[in-house]
Amino acid sequence: MTRPIKAFVDTKALKANLSCVRHKSAQSQVLSVVKANAYGHGIERVFEGLKSSDGFGVLEVCEAHVLRDLGFRGPIVLLEGVFGPRELEDCSRLQLWHAVHCSEQIDWLSRHKTHKAHRVFLKMNSGMNRLGFKPAQFKSVWSRLNALPQVEEISLMTHFSDADLPGGVQLQQSLFEHHAQDLIGERSLANSAALFLNPLDNALSQDWVRVGIALYGGSVNYPSQTSSDWDLKPVMSFRSKVIATQDLKAGDTVGYGSTFTATQPMKIGIVACGYADGYPRSASTGTPILVNGHLTQTLGRVSMDMLTVDLSPLPQLGQIDPVGAEVTLWGAAQTGERLDIDVVAHHAKTLAYELMCGLATRVPFEVIDSPD
After folding, report:
1. 35 is catalytic
2. Is 353 an active-site residue?
3. Active-site residue identified among 12, 216, 249, 256
4. pLDDT tens digits for range 26-83
5. Catalytic residue among 24, 35, 123, 233
6. What is the CATH number of domain 236-368?
């Protein structure tokens, strides 16, 4: 028997989340972000659920290759642009749109020989201070790009640093609008948080919304609101099984470092999952977990290949053998109960993004269509 651990990608949940995004951005086209191998879900695995997107956002040319090989013929945007001049040849061949955020990329483009001019997304650094041109430079850079024969169309974009906070987009939005107001080109401002927290702001949604975490069922502002509050469904479910049990007496300890001590007799379960699978080692005693759909908690430290759970919340524990019981580490249990990935991430002092992207290659995946 193979080790009983598996991750599931729910196609129906992806479609439902994309529909939810469209409802909140009725005036905009949706650019579904599938960088980092679709946030750890796998581009090939999510494509069926997201193929009705108006376009896709990727980080690397290899991700664009995957989408073209899957048959997608619509817009694909390199969100950080090209990393060297030779990648412009890939943009020409694959008909990729690409961000322009620095002078070096413009220099490369000016020397690029192409039969078909490119569509580019000129990026403003409106306050994130990662990539992009300062607002005062924006118009002159636009003019320089617009003069290049290699450029067919210029779209305008920026990225919000505080979109998940109340009023967190106002300053950057006003900077963008002021310095881009006279420039021709479609606009792309809103990410998941900006869209969901400002659903009626058409000026913010603009022509394209770039959506990532919401598509995969993560909350845009946890712990203020959960993904359920936003009507988003978990796309990734991570499950294993109890492979052994131990009976503890008061004073017994659990795991490396003996960080948990039983205060009374109790039964614990050993689960086939550890930090080598991508479950966070920082998820200490008390992290929520589901066993046969019943909410319980982890105990002690997470090991490389195993973790420990409290079995006392399981009903009829004396009449059943818990070995083989399903354990839902995050996502949906087979019985329908749900443990949001944001809850687990919060207990591990990290973000749902990191858990999604961090599953190990040794964890097998299965694509499913959940029941209605």
Report:
1. yes
2. no
3. 256
4. 889 999 999 999 999 999 999 999 999 999 999 999 999 999 999 999 999 999 999 9
5. 35
6. 2.40.37.10
